[in-house]
Amino acid sequence: MAQSIFHQADSRGQANHGWLVSSHTFSFANYYNPERIHFGALRVLNDDMVKGGMGFGQHPHDNMEIISIPLEGDLEHKDSMGNVAVIREGDIQVMSAGTGIYHSEYNHHPEEAVKFLQIWVFPNKKNVSPRYDQITLQKNDSHNQLQQILSPNPEDEGVWIHQDAWFHLGNFDEGKTNHYAIKKSGNGVYAFVLEGGFQINGYDLGRRDGLGIWDIDSFDLKATSNNSRILLMEVPMHISHN
Q1: Exposure of 154 by Cβ count < 10 A (0-12 exposed, 13-18 middle, 19+ buried)?
Q2: What's residue 241's pLDDT?
Q3: 3-state secondary structure of 34
Q4: Number of other CB atoms surrounding residue 119 within 10 Å
Q5: CATH of the domain at 211
Q6: Residue that finishes a domain, picked among 95, 116, 132
Q7: In angstroms, rounded to a whole number, what is the distance separating the alpha carbons of residues 121 and 124?
Q8: Mean pLDDT, all residues of the chain
Q9: Annotated binding residues for Fe cation, as ranges?
Q10: 192 in the same domain as 88
Q11: Burial status of residue 16 (CB atoms within 10 A of its CB: 0-12, 13-18, 19 or more)
């Protein structure tokens, strides 16, 4: 039987540091909720706003797959592998921290805010060589359909990570529907509404609401307003490290 967990937008953990305003779907930094540590291999889903000219100074990560999705503005990235890049709305950035990496993230614009999702996924392999990649999506590929933006396969569409995970973005007109089939048995899906609203599995979701679904083979979604945008994150529900 299908199981699900619904997280309303206003139930997320809040952090306001002045230069950074962040909403945490799962426990992170000073926000701790023992019932919201992770959803399967999905460990972090942060909805961040960084003021102009500000950002995160150099800091370390290891053994984590880190995905950044800019929603507005430009985010500047630098890391210990020598990568220097700016990621913008419509781009997807991925970093396999593996054996260890240092990086910094700053708002590339001196005045306008940058808004982005920071997502962490537990890897299925530890101590891999650190890796960085970014791509620019074709916006029309997500109109009234789900566009794959991440998978476990380097040859597949989107970026790839060391985990049996698949991410999709969709931008739907009101009343449009889509059928999603689970890619791998034992996986679940965490649906996160970026804009507008959706009906999924008997739930009405609004902007920034989240719904986790597992023990299911497929489900349908329906947009309840125009310009409704959603991110689906399919991940293993049981975490294992090779």
Answers
A1: exposed
A2: 59
A3: coil
A4: 23
A5: 2.60.120.10
A6: 132
A7: 9
A8: 96
A9: 59, 61, 103, 105
A10: no
A11: exposed
Which of 87, 110, 132 is a domain's end point?
A: 132
Provide the residue type at 176 as one letter.
K
Q: What is the rounded average pLDDT of the residues 57-80?
A: 95
Amino acid at 125: K
Tokens of 66: 């880190």
E strand or H helix at 134: strand 131-136
Is residue 28 within 8 Å of 46, Cβ to Cβ?
yes
Do residues 155 and 200 share a domain?
A: yes
Tokens of 219: 């489900």
Question: pLDDT band at 242, cuts 50/70/90?
Answer: low
Domain count for the chain? 2
- Co-location of 29 and 112 in the same domain: yes
* Residues 17 and 128 both lie in one domain: yes
pLDDT digits (tens, 9 = 90+) for 107-161: 999 999 999 999 999 999 999 999 999 999 988 899 999 999 999 999 999 999 9
Annotated binding-site residue numbers: 59, 61, 103, 105
Contacts of 162 (CB under 8 A, 6+ apart): 65, 96, 123, 124, 125, 128, 152
Q: Which two tokens mark 57?
A: 């100074």
Answer whether residue 227 shows pLDDT above 80. Answer: yes
Write the single-letter amino acid at 116: F
Predicted local distance difference test score (pLDDT) of residue 239? 85
Range of the domain at 27: 13-132
If we measure between CA atoms, which residue out of 90, 76, 86, 104 comes closest to residue 141? 90
10 Cβ neighbours under 8 A, 6+ residues apart = none
Site of tokens 């975490």 = 239
